[in-house]
Design goal:
Layout (H helix, E strand, L loop, with lengths): L4 E4 L3 H12 L4 E5 L14 E2 L10 H17 L4 E2 L3 E5 L7 H11 L5 E3 L1 H7 L9 E5 L2 E3 L1 H14 L3 E4 L1 E9 L2 E9 L5 E5 L2 E4 L5 H7 L7 E11 L6 E4 L8 E5 L2 E5 L3 E2 L10 H12 L10 E11 L5 E4 L2 E4 L8 E5 H5 L4 E6 L5 H16 L16
Parallel strand pairs: 1-2, 1-13, 2-9, 5-15, 13-23
Antiparallel strand pairs: 3-8, 4-8, 5-7, 6-7, 10-11, 11-12, 14-17, 14-18, 14-19, 15-16, 16-17, 20-21, 22-23
The site of flavin-adenine dinucleotide has 38 residues, from helix 1, strand 2, strand 10 and strand 19.
Length: 389
């Protein structure tokens, strides 16, 4: 089989790259070892961020989120549940945080509207009755499986091919770098070689493993997080606590459930989806500070996912080994050009970011791929509508 670009990974990022490149007239084959969205994209919290959560800690990421949030509302409204968001100051939160947070929202151009605490309680009767302040932002919930499916359908309509349940287990190359991949059909065991001019490694938390197989090395900051889905939605808007990002401070009404989360636990294993008892207790006790009845709620489901973060600045080597402060790892992203960085041509890696910023990540990766392929076509995904599934 032969194609221009092989994309490895059928999460939001890889599917976004396939959509972007196929709109530019490039022949793409996406290879995904599970089904679409079965990596981190299908195990996330469900929030299409405005960026308000990050304004105090990571203004660049906050700005990216707001820009992308606005675009996704326009090009894929069918994957969103326009719940709106409320940032609330609970009795145990620090009032001093609020002014800096408001300044950050202004710097990132995120529209914020303060509500009377009584109005917030009228709208959200299950909030803590001692809620001191509440601010409305245009957050929305996003169905990531619909998003990945819609991107696939859109890319296929432009000629892209998708091989699901196929795992890339080897690479072909010559002196110029990578020239193809070997993919195994995990259902039949059959292998096939796909010749290509370029590989995009969009394997999320598996990106370093995939890179290794291609002969390039880089470190990632993997961080596991847990979510608990409760019976019923509990709130109509997404509720976030007004404090620096921490455990259990966001509640997302998603489908028929309300989802509380999350945690941030360093891990070396991209497939680490354990939830430890202390994580359940931490999420419930932190959520109780703004939704006090939650402990009596019934947990319908729980899941965990691994954040594919990359930030060499938060890693430091010491006698104790590599220390990673994973709450400080930036939520923005990097396109790694392995020709420049490792002397291996024909492969790019996209790491970091958020589901909210998948389109921008795909745009930057596709720009880099086009430059290497000598294709002079600009990105169309900020305007082109994504087909509904
Ligand atoms: C707990 C948690 C909560 C989060 N909440 C939010 C949120 O509310 N909002 C938000 O915007 N972001 C959130 N994120 C971040 C967001 O989920 C991720 O940044 C995003 O989903 C990553 O998408 P991806 O496509 O890069 O990776 P993935 O979705 O993991 O996709 C990579 C794919 O590559 C495939 N793959 C790997 N190796 C191979 C191989 N060898 N061959 C073939 N396929 C392979 C995997 O099966 C996988 O499907 C959260 C993350 C976590 C962990």
């Amino acid at each position: 089989m032969e194609t221009d670009v092989v994309v490895i990974g059928g999460g939001a990022t890889g599917a976004g790259v396939a959509w972007d490149l196929s709109l530019r007239g490039i022949d793409v084959t996406l290879v995904e070892m599970g089904d679409m969205g079965t990596g981190t994209s299908g195990r996330y919290h469900g929030l299409l961020h405005t960026g308000a959560r990050y304004v105090a800690s990571d203004l660049t990421s906050a700005r990216e989120c707001f820009q992308e949030h606005t675009i996704i509302r326009r090009v894929a409204p069918h994957v969103l549940d326009d719940t709106g968001g409320l940032f609330v100051l609970s009795p145990s939160d620090e009032e001093e945080f609020v002014d800096g947070w408001l300044d950050g929202c202004e710097a990132a151009n995120i529209p914020v509207q303060e509500l009377d605490a009584s109005e917030a309680l009228d709208r959200e009767p299950l909030l803590h009755p001692g809620t001191r302040r509440a601010f409305e932002v245009p957050d929305a919930a996003c169905d990531s499986f619909s998003l990945c499916g819609a991107l696939r359908r859109s890319a296929e309509s432009e000629g892209a091919k998708f091989l699901v349940y196929h795992k890339v287990e080897g690479f072909h190359g010559d002196n110029g770098g990578i020239t193809g991949v070997r993919a195994t059909d995990l259902r039949s065991g059959e292998t096939q070689d796909i010749r290509c001019s370029m590989v995009v490694n969009a394997a999320g938390p598996w990106a370093a493993e995939v890179g290794n197989a291609a002969g390039v090395e880089f470190g990632m900051v993997l961080s596991r997080g847990a979510m608990l889905a409760f019976n019923g939605r509990w709130t109509s808007a997404i509720v976030s606590r007004l404090r620096p990002p921490g455990d259990g401070d966001i509640f997302v009404p998603l489908g028929y459930s309300g989802v509380a989360g999350t945690t941030s636990v360093p891990t070396d294993d991209p497939g680490d989806t354990r939830i430890e008892d202390w994580e359940r207790e931490r999420i419930i006790s932190e959520t109780e500070t703004f939704l006090p009845g939650i402990r009596r709620g019934k947990i319908l489901r729980s899941w965990a996912g691994v954040r594919p973060l990359y930030d060499p600045d938060t890693q430091s080597d010491s006698a104790e080994g590599t220390h990673v402060d994973n709450r400080k790892a930036t939520r923005t992203f990097d396109v790694l050009d392995h020709e420049e960085e490792d002397g291996v041509g024909g492969i790019l890696t996209i790491v970091g970011g958020k589901l909210t910023t998948f389109r921008l990540m795909a745009e930057k990766t596709s720009d880099a791929a086009c430059e290497k392929l000598g294709v002079d076509k600009t990105c169309l995904t900020a305007e082109a509508e994504i087909l509904a599934t």
